[in-house]
Each structure stands twice: as C-alpha cells, then as structure tokens.
Design goal:
Blueprint lengths: L4 H12 L6 E2 L11 E6 L9 H9 L7 E9 L4 E14 L6 H6 L6 E2 L6 H7 L3 E3 L5 H5 L3 E15 L8 E3 L9 E6 L4 E9 L2 H4 L3 H16 L4 E16 L3 E2 L2 E3 L15 H15 L5 H4 L1 H17 L4 H12 L1 H8 L5 H14 L2
Parallel strand pairs: 1-5, 3-8, 6-13
Antiparallel strand pairs: 2-4, 3-4, 7-10, 7-11, 8-9, 9-10, 12-13
Helix pairs in contact: 1-8, 10-13
The site of flavin-adenine dinucleotide has 32 residues, from helix 1, strand 2, strand 11 and helix 8.
Organism: Brevibacillus borstelensis AK1
Protein name: FAD dependent dehydrogenase
InterPro entries: FAD/NAD-bd_sf
Length: 357
C-alpha cells in the first residue's frame, strides 16, 4: 500500500524471489508531488559508506543519483567549515523522470494500480500480507502503533544560479527558525533546491515563516555571492517524525516512514525507507524475521532522537564553536572513518545526560 521508496523496494525484492505483489498507489502516477532534491549522507548509515553501491550489490536495486557529494560547506551564524571527501549522494524526488521513485518504478514488473481507493482493512481481507508504505504514518497511528516524537515543517524552493553540483551547503543558524537548519542541494550546475527545515515548536509557531524565509534566502545569496532566482516553492507542514511500536502485527508490515524511517536528528529517511521495504520482503519470502532485521534501524532511530534533543540545547554561540571543528582534519577523519560510527558513539555518550533532563 503506497508506491514510494519503501513500497517499491519491497515489490522489487519480492519479484526477485518469485512473488508477484499487487501494488496500490493513491496518486495517479509515481512521485506525483512537487519536485525536490534529497540526499543520502554516508555518515548517517555507517558502516555502509556507499548506499548506492550497497543497494546495487546486495539487493539488485539500482539508483542513479544526480551527483556524488565530494565537498560540503557548513555555515553557522559567523563561522564556516569546508569538509572534503566522499560524503554521499544527491537525487531527485517527485514529479521528475529521474526521481528515485520513478527509477524504482521502472524496475518493478508487477502492475501498479493507480488512483487506488482501497483501504488497509479491505487489503487485509483480500491478501495474505499487507505492507503499509503510505509515507505518512496515518494508518500506523490509527492502529495505536506509532509514537510521534516531533513534527517538522519544510519551506523550500527550486532556485537557479551557478552551482558546483558536487558541493551542497548547510546552514546551522538558529536566527532564522529556532532549532532549525537550512540546506542547498544542487541538482545540476544551474539548478538547486533551497530548504529551511524546522521543528513545529511553539517558539517557531509564533514566527512569521515568510519573513524568516526571506532573511534566510538573503543570507544564502550573500554567502554564495550571487542572486538566486526562485522558480517554484513548496511548504510541507506538520511532517511527523516517530516510530512504530511493532514493525509487524499479524501479517501486516510497517515500512518506510510508517516504520520510523525518518531520523529525528536531521530528517533523513530515504536509506531506511528502502531498507525496511527490502526487509519486509525478506520476511514474506521466509528469508528472515522483519522485527529482528529492523532492530538496528530502531536503535539508529533512538540514537538519532538523542542527538536531536542534544542539538536543541545548543545556541548559536555553541554552533559557532562546533562548526570549525567539523572542517578540521580531526573532524574530517571522524566524519569519514570507515568503521567508526561517530554519531552512534556521540549518542551513547550523551544518552545519560539527555535522559536526566
Ligand atoms: C521536503 C522533504 C525533504 C526530504 N529530504 C530528505 C533528504 O534529503 N534525505 C533523506 O534521506 N530523506 C529526506 N526526506 C524524507 C524521505 O523523503 C522519506 O523518509 C522517504 O521518502 C519515505 O519513504 P516512504 O516509502 O515511507 O514514503 P514515500 O516515498 O513518501 O511514499 C509513500 C507513497 O504512498 C502513497 N500513498 C499515501 N497514502 C496512500 C494510500 N492510502 N494508499 C495508497 N498509496 C498511498 C503516496 O502517494 C506515496 O507515493 C525528505 C522528505 C521531505 C518531505
């Protein structure tokens, strides 16, 4: 139920094991929403450092990003860091022929039923197994199986300008939205996606989002030393970040965001969404138990939540101290160490401090 990243990864894997799934999608085509850029960062899924190679080699799922990330510029209120290395990938999502969901759709052989009105309850009666992959946690919540930890909003735009497609930028500066951040992901040398992401906390609800967006946009133009031209806008509000209590109930599997793919620290969810789809298929094929396979992902989610609560205690002065460290030789080697999972260790170290709160 749902032909997004997790649902399609599940369908492809089932087919590879000789099972023909029925795929139901509420929209009239794949990726039928605004176009945006998303990324997969290597540091977030260690020890896997190359997610594109991982899905190809281990799962026969082929993803074509628009570029690999070879340099990342990070700006705080008054500091800047430059991190070099193989840091991840950038890809299209939404209504674009190269969007990941369209790429996956081309690898699925079974028919996809578009404009589906089938409810979960109806599918449950008709099929042996149901994979809930609707991307929004609605059914998971309705079944009292979802713990929402926070909701976030993302205000973004497609912009044109002069970009290095291998170099995205991030802004860690709470002057625009409290505990939020901004990023610019180039999709080509002339087009990029500029986004301001922020938690829906009361201190942000009181702010004029359009005014804050305007200030953020001016800062980005200043930092990049060029006027950016906005070609389209989007605004996602109340996007839930949380995790299911049980990954499998009876013969129903919760995958993607319905599992808890969206990580609270920075809001990345693509990698886990794909993996949960694959793991649900493994279970259905008798190749593993979904609850067990997803245990490491559940731990990553909880670690990511610890990190989110920790960064929320920081202010702009702290961020000005941290950002130069990221760009130092020491910071780079921690971020890029192949086997050392810096975020897991940081979460481990912070956990007692955060739970005492
Ligand atoms: C603006 C934005 C930026 C993001 N940036 C990043 C990023 O940079 N990196 C990253 O890793 N993650 C990012 N994410 C998160 C990432 O996109 C999600 O975690 C991931 O797509 C979740 O996959 P999914 O399969 O759960 O849902 P989706 O890929 O969203 O797919 C859900 C599908 O289910 C369909 N559907 C919904 N309801 C029904 C129904 N009742 N019946 C049938 N079909 C239904 C939908 O139409 C959709 O096709 C971002 C999210 C947003 C919104």
């Amino acid at each position: 139920m749902g032909a997004g990243l997790s649902g399609l990864a599940c369908a492809i894997t089932l087919e590879k094991h000789g099972i023909s799934p029925a795929v139901f999608e509420v929209r009239e085509r794949l990726g039928d929403r605004f176009v945006n850029a998303e990324s997969m960062l290597s540091i977030l899924q260690k020890p896997i450092t190359d997610p594109v190679a991982f899905f190809a080699e281990k799962n026969g799922i082929y993803l074509k990003p628009t570029a690999s990330i070879q340099r990342l510029l990070v700006f705080s209120q008054s500091q800047k860091a430059e991190i070099e290395g193989s840091l991840g990938f950038i890809n299209y999502r939404g209504r674009h022929e190269h969007a990941f969901e369209r790429q996956l759709g081309r690898q699925v052989k079974s028919a996809i039923q578009y404009r589906s009105k089938a409810t979960y309850e109806e599918l449950l009666m008709e099929y042996t197994h149901v994979v809930v992959a609707t991307g929004d946690g609605e059914y998971t919540r309705k079944m009292h199986n979802f713990r929402t930890d926070l909701t976030v909003s993302l205000k973004g735009a497609m912009v044109t300008g002069d970009f290095d497609r291998y170099t995205p930028c991030a802004w860690l500066d709470y002057s625009y939205m409290e505990k939020g951040y901004g990023y610019l992901l180039p999709l080509s040398d002339t087009e990029a996606n500029l986004v301001m992401a922020y938690p829906d906390y009361p201190e942000n609800d009181r702010l004029d989002v359009d005014e804050r967006w305007g200030l953020f946009y001016e800062r980005v133009c200043r930092d990049l030393r060029q006027p950016l031209r906005i070609t389209s806008h989007f605004h996602v509000t109340g996007y839930p970040i949380g995790i299911c209590r049980r990954a499998r109930i009876g013969n129903t599997f919760f995958v993607g965001n319905c599992f808890g793919a969206l990580m609270p620290f920075l809001g990345f969810g693509q990698f886990t969404a794909l993996l949960t789809g694959i793991y649900a298929a493994y279970d259905i094929c008798g190749k593993g138990a979904y609850e067990e396979l997803t245990q490491p992902l559940r731990r990553s989610y909880e670690n990511s939540l610890v990190l989110r609560r920790a960064v929320e205690r920081l202010d702009n002065e702290d961020l000005d101290r941290i950002v130069p460290v990221l760009g130092s030789r020491w910071g780079e080697s921690i971020l890029q160490g192949k086997s050392f999972n810096a975020l897991r260790w940081l979460a481990f170290a912070l956990r007692p401090w955060m739970t005492k709160r």
